[in-house]
Structures are given as C-alpha cells and as structure tokens.
C-alpha cells in the first residue's frame, strides 16, 4: 500500500450496503437498529491476492455520534449531508430520531481533521466467541488498513 491522493477517495451522496448480519437486533423492539457512519474507500484498491481478490482491503468505517446527552437521545438516522469545502473543511449532517411519540431533528458538524483522526485511532474487532465488538489489542498491521 502507498499513500493515496485525495482524489482517490470519495463520500458518496447515496450509498447502499447490504446490512445482512450488520445491524443490531433488539427483540423487545421488533426491529433492527440503523448505525450512522462514515467510511473511507480507496477507489484504486484492486484487492489482495487469491482469497482477497476483488475485495476491498482498504475499507474502514467509523460511527458518527450526534446526540443530546441531557435527554439521553441519540440521533441515528442521517437523511442528508452537506459538505463545506475550504481550509477548514466541514461536514454537516442532518440527523433524525424518535423521542417518545415525537420526531426530532438535529444538525451536527464534523471537521475533516476529526474524521481523519477517527480513522487513525485504535481498531475494533468482532469477537465471535463473545459475539460483540472489542478493542483490537494486537500490533497494527503494516501497511495500516486504509493507508
């Protein structure tokens, strides 16, 4: 892996991903949860050799948190995003949630440096035996995924 030009990355306006096995299910609520996130994909990634052939090997994702902590309310639907380019690039997300029987909305701002910092932070891995996510404690692979 080598450093990638900025033009090699994109944030799509609408991206669909098969959520099979990815959304948490709460049997008491009778529906799956939606996780709002941002992802980084290298357009020029051709995948790995043999078993990883034609697979994304530079795909990383991070959760976007937009909440009203006093009300213990997490906005978990993201119907729109606005990109404000410039020296201090920012993304504004229009989030929605349900609070009791009321639909509520919020706008949260994320600076590009904060997004980059999230992708440079520690990893999580899914632990099959425990059936939950936990912090990855082994040595960071080289090259670092997403680099």
UniProtKB/TrEMBL annotation:
GO annotation, biological process: axon guidance; neural crest cell migration; positive regulation of cell migration; semaphorin-plexin signaling pathway
What are the protein's UniProt keywords? Glycoprotein
Transmembrane region positions? none
Q: Pfam families in the record, alphabetically?
A: Sema
Q: Which residues form the Sema domain?
A: 1-147
Asked if the keyword Glycoprotein belongs to this entry, the reply reads yes
GO cellular component terms, alphabetically, are: plasma membrane; synaptic vesicle membrane
Q: Drop me one GO molecular function for this one.
A: chemorepellent activity
Name recorded for this polypeptide: Semaphorin-4C
Please name the source species: Fulmarus glacialis (Northern fulmar)
């Amino acid at each position: 892996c080598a450093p990638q030009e900025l033009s090699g990355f994109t944030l799509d306006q609408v991206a669909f991903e098969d959520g099979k096995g990815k959304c948490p299910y709460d049997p008491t609520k009778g529906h799956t949860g939606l996780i709002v996130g941002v992802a980084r994909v290298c357009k020029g990634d051709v995948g790995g050799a043999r078993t990883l052939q034609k697979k994304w090997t530079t795909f990383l994702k991070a959760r976007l948190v937009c909440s009203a902590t006093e009300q213990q309310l997490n906005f978990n639907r993201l119907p729109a995003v606005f990109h404000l380019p410039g020296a201090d690039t920012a993304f504004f997300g229009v989030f929605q949630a349900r609070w009791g029987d009321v639909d509520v909305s919020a706008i949260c701002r994320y600076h590009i440096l904060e997004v980059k910092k999230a992708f440079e932070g520690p990893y999580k891995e899914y632990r099959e035996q425990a059936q939950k996510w936990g912090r990855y404690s082994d040595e960071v692979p080289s090259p670092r995924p997403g680099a």
